[in-house]
Amino acid sequence: MTTKRPPTPPLSHSIQTALLGALGEADPLGHVLHPAQTVEEHGSIIYHLTSHFESWYAATKSNTILINVANKQMIVTKDPAVYEAVLNAPTAENFDTPEANHVVFGYFLPHSIFIVENEAWARLRQTGLHIVTKQSLDSIPRLVAQTVENLFNTRASSTTWTFEPNDEFPKLTFDIFHHFFYRWQSNAIGNESVSAQHFSDYSTICNALGSRTALPKPWLWRLPLESNHVVDKARESLLAQVAVLIEERRKALAANPDIDLSTLSIADALILEANNGVLTNEELHDTLISFFVGGFDTTTGTLSTMLSHLAKYPQVQDELREALRAAFPRGKEDLAAATPADIAAVDYLVWTVDEAMRLVPAIPGLPRACIKSCTIHGFDIQKGDSILVDSTSAAHDPDNFDGQTDLLDFRPTRYRNATFKPSSSMPFGYGVRSCFGQRYAKTEIQALCAYIVLGWKISRPADLSLVFDQNVAVSTRKGHGTLIWEKIVN
């Protein structure tokens, strides 16, 4: 069988491109010299770079391309025949997480599932998956209702509230997560002192993960800069807080040996696994933090982009509200008392959430590194190549959606009487390393969407363009995500 390297697209002739290859097309110099102006115009470096992919596919007439990124060979693909093999067994064994991920996550969480390999990775994944699968999700609709009401009542001075979701939704999802996973009565929304410190530390670390992944140079992080000091201080503070939580919960569990295991929080279940020798203490600390890191930005980003699309497409919002009212006649009151199964039974809601995650995936690409040369779909992939599964372009490709040509529109009904390949849309990844917290994430996002749409009419300023950006996850770009909530009075 004849093999070949993927084609390389033509680039501009700028000095930055001559020095940095495809990365030069994202104007890294502009991000250094004029960061606010460049981000306002193009978004982050990562987002700016990925915005070129579609034109490069078209220029090469190939759904798999080879680009040079700062002297590193990167294969970018939206072809299911290629990326399914990269992400799934048995050929997935030829690929690993990229070195940049190891360097960046290793700085913060060296014993987490993001870093460990082989037996340790399999053990951590199996343990986490087992615990998450057993966990009842029935409390989530009630938690969502309480937390959304707390947010609105704390912030709004009337029945109408105008706000920037990137300022408010992180605290909303932070409080829901900690109530559910840790049984800790967090109130970041109300700026309670301990919750506020915890939230600040997590936010600092998540922002650092995003910016440092774009430029994974550890020597930069050791420079005597105030920004580095802030990140290191947040890391130490967070580790200390988690250590206190573990000690408190260990004492509580020891004092109640007959506790019903089915009622345990995920944190308590992990602590018991560590007590039984399944996890080391270092793995326990990093796993507790990584559960949150893995879902914080992604859930917040998905909620922001989904509600922005519902505001942009009022007919879809009205149809969704009608479907929800049919299922929950007393509106928010019924929703708060519902089970996750009740909520997931509303087809239009499921379609809406799936469509939002397809149109703007929170994680727009799945990176891998080739650790063993191989041939996939006729392409020669060499050891040392970086691979980026372009999940955003794959989700916008008519070939993956029965030839549909309106894939840049927000149309939930495309899922009515239609079955698409699971790999066509990959908001939680795909294959052997897919997100094992997706059951919780889907339930939370569905409950949030349903409760908010039942309680408020959502709109946007008429003259505001809807533009996105990416740090860790994709969300609305600063200054372009403003939402207006108008309380519905029955």
From TrEMBL:
CDD domains: cytochrome_P450. It holds the Pfam family p450. Keywords: Heme, Iron, Metal-binding, Monooxygenase, Oxidoreductase. Its cofactor is heme. Heme binds at C435. GO terms for molecular function: heme binding; iron ion binding; monooxygenase activity; oxidoreductase activity, acting on paired donors, with incorporation or reduction of molecular oxygen. Belongs to the cytochrome P450 family. This is Cytochrome P450. It comes from Aphanomyces euteiches. The lineage of its organism: Eukaryota, Sar, Stramenopiles, Oomycota, Saprolegniomycetes.
